[in-house]
Amino acid sequence: MNIYQELKFDNIESLLENAYPVLSAVLAKQHWHELIQDYFAKHNASRPEFYHLPLEFLDFLKNERNNQTDPEYLYELAHYEWTELALDYAEVEIPQQGIDRHGDLLHGHVVISPLAWLLQYHYPVHRIGVDYQPTETPQKPTYLIVYRDRDENIGFTLVNELTALLLNLIQQNPAQTTYSILTDMIKQLKMTDAATIIDGAKATLKNLRQQDIILGTRKIRNS
Questions:
Q1: pLDDT, tens only, 28-82
Q2: pTM score
Q3: What are the angstrom distances between the C-alpha of 222 and each of 92, 100, 120, 173, 190?
Q4: Nearest residue to 129 (alpha-carbon basis) of 51, 27, 53, 35
Q5: Would you place residue 96 in the very low, low, confident or very high pLDDT band (cuts 50, 70, 90)?
Q6: From CA 92, how far away is CA 141, in angstroms rounded?
């Protein structure tokens, strides 16, 4: 039984190390080993299949892990790595019908890919690694879009707070054009130089379309 238990533990540790390569690399070897032991001892997995293991581990970090020696960015880094994995295996296709890939991004109704996830973190998780491990929480949050493109490649792009706000508003207000959303946003935030902001937003949206984060605009059906 001891041999079986040790083999099972080794398999789980190996699977989690492959799922969370950055997290396992930034922690000292003994710290990582203790973390897996804690998961192994405490967590009662509701999804026992091996391919659900990374999500079970993420649940453990969020709800059960409580250790003062862990870096504060531990959960956020794990979530970021899990997101890349989840998108890679997501059984979702980029829609092809009803979308004009070359539509007017300002005066049309923008369609955001279901495989583009806008995420907000306290820490710059995309930069964390062996050579960079922040010890203090930055004053400003980090906004990232993690996505899977039409060629099945996983990528991420860093966006600023205004772009994150605009994309959220586009998703929440599908009946409004981007220009209408932008003008409302400019008024509410009492921003100056509206023309520069709109031009900047247009350029940003074009760049996001090149990455398949924005798919185009919704086609208008003729009545």
A1: 999 999 999 999 888 876 665 556 889 999 999 999 998 889 999 999 999 999 9
A2: 0.90
A3: 28, 14, 39, 21, 37
A4: 27
A5: confident
A6: 29
